[in-house]
Structures are given as structure tokens and as C-alpha cells.
Amino acid sequence: MRKRNIILSKIIFALLFANFAFVSCEKFIDYDVPEHEPRLVVISGFQPAEPWSVFVSHSLSSFDNDNYSQIHNADVTVNSVDGSYSEKLIYSNMSNRYYSTEIPEEGREYEILVSTSRYPTASSTNKIPEAATILSLDTVEGYHNGDFTLDFELTFSNSSAEENFFIVQLYTIESYSWKDEFQNLIYIQSDDPNVEQVGEDDYGDDMLFLKDQSFDGREYTLRFYTPEYFSPNYGKSAQFRVKVLTSSEEFYRYQKSSKQYNYSNDNPFAQPVQIYSNIENGIGVFGGYSVSEIDL
């Protein structure tokens, strides 16, 4: 019995010593995190159906959990590159954005200038591309990955000779007595090889991204589906609306990289994603897009 106690005591001592040795060997390395230098943030996606809307704020560091701090005293001006239009935008306290009275036009190139007393003037140029023509929209009940779905066949065309960038969205439309209609954006998926995958969500995403490299200037039928069609939130009697955004390359890249960033942000094994920016002397996006839509 005494021998057993001696052996047990030696084991406990050895474990305590090993633990002490492990703790004693820990090294603490001082690391100087580079100080974050705030930059001007300018975000504006513009289309021909709405006035200009511009969000302006300060950038935050990666370790800052605060919300964006809006800048309400900036000088925000939008000009047409051909010199036929210039307007200084007005700040709204209700939405924390700068608005115009005029509406941008499709095909015209615009420049934005944003200046404050703290930062150098931020600028960018962009234009609204020609809208796609939606030719038809058909549906059929389907089955994907063990779930019943509603499958869509969307046929559209774009006559532009330039490379085009498309963002496709699906909405359900609901009407209420206090509001004409409510658009509810829902998730969709596609197995189309032209669709660029931005995440690995089993339920898809609320945007599909595709380029027209393989069908430039021709009609194209995009097939996609929604796994949420049979859920109680929508029901088989729901009215649907499909929107096709024909966007500038800059707006397309910003939207796609923002989605990729959101997917990678909660995944410790994902590659870091840099959100695209086309703002000189700042970060953000100034990008045009046109919208075509069809109801079903």
C-alpha cells in the first residue's frame, strides 16, 4: 500500500511539474498593431428611376465594433462629365444621406466629388448601363437537394456590345390596406455555369451574379429556384417579381465582394476578402445600374 502511494505521489508531482514547466515556457510577444488612419467612406448606387442618394462616413478599424459615424457637413457634388449637369446634394437627417432633386440618366457618365475639412477630396466616375430586356418568365415545381422548390426560367437579352454584368433578385409581393405593396426579397439558387458563386449557404442568397461572356448580345435563359417557396411565409398563392439589374462593372464587383466578405467574416478558415472600391482618396463605391422587372 505504501509503495502504491509513493508511485501515485510521483505521478501527481510529475503532472504538476509538467504543467508548471508548460506555463513557464509560455512566451508573450508584444505586437504593435498599426494605428488605423480613418478614411472617407462614400457609397452611392444610382439608377435612372430615383434621385441621387449618397452615404458619407468615416472608415473604422478591424478592431472597432462601433457603427459607422455619418458625416453630415460634407460638400457632395455630382457632375456630368460632358458638363451639362451639376448639382450640390442636400443632407437629410431622417436617412443620414445626401439627396438630389434631379434624376440620373442612362448612358451618361457622371463624376462625384466629396470634400470635408478633415479629408482630401474623394472622387469617382461611373455611368448607368443600358437596361436588359426581359422576354419571358416561366415557373414549374421542382425538387432540389431533398426539398420541393419552385423553379424559374427567365429569358432576357441585352443588345449592348460591351461586356455586361447582371444581378438577379426574386421578391414576393404582398399588399396591405395601409400600403400599396410590400416587396420581400427572398433567397434563390442556381446551377447555371454562368452564375458566380459567392458563398456556400445551403439556402442560396438574395442575389445571383452573372456576366454575359458566353451570351453577349444574344437572348439567354437563366434557370434558378427558391427553396423557400413551400414554407409558411410564402405559400403557393404568392405573387412573385423578378428584377434584373444591369450594372456597371464597379457596382457589380462591390456588391459581389461585399457578399463574399460577409460569408468569410464568420468563417475562421476562409480566405480574407477585400471589399472592392472605386473611390479615389477614400473607400466605397460610386456605381450605376438599370433595373428591368417582371411580375408573375
How many β-strand stretches? 17
Count of separate DSSP helical elements: 2
Which sheet architecture does the biggest sheet show?
A: 10 strands, mixed
Q: Which range does the strand content fall in?
A: 35-45%
Gyration radius, rounded:
27 Å
User: Could you name the ranges where pLDDT drops below 50 across 5 or more consecutive residues?
Assistant: 1-33
Helix content: 10-25%
- Given the helix and strand composition, which structural class is it? mainly beta
Distance between the termini: 85 Å
Q: In the CATH classification, which architecture of the largest domain applies? A: Sandwich
Q: Average pLDDT value? A: 82
- Overall form: globular
CATH class of the largest domain: Mainly Beta
Instruction: Provide the succession of SSEs.
Output: HEEEEEEEEEEEEEEEEHE
Q: Do you know the CATH topology of the largest domain?
A: Immunoglobulin-like
Please, how many domains?
2
Can you characterise this structure?
It comes from Candidatus Venteria ishoeyi. Pfam families: DUF4249. This is DUF4249 domain-containing protein. InterPro entries: DUF4249 (IPR025345). With 296 residues, the chain is mostly beta strands. It folds into 2 domains: 40-127, Immunoglobulin-like; 133-274 and 289-295, Immunoglobulin-like (Sandwich). The protein contains 2 helices and 17 strands. Strands 1, 2, 5, 6, 11, 12, 13, 14, 16 and 17 form a 10-stranded mixed beta sheet that branches. The chain is globular and about 60 Å long.
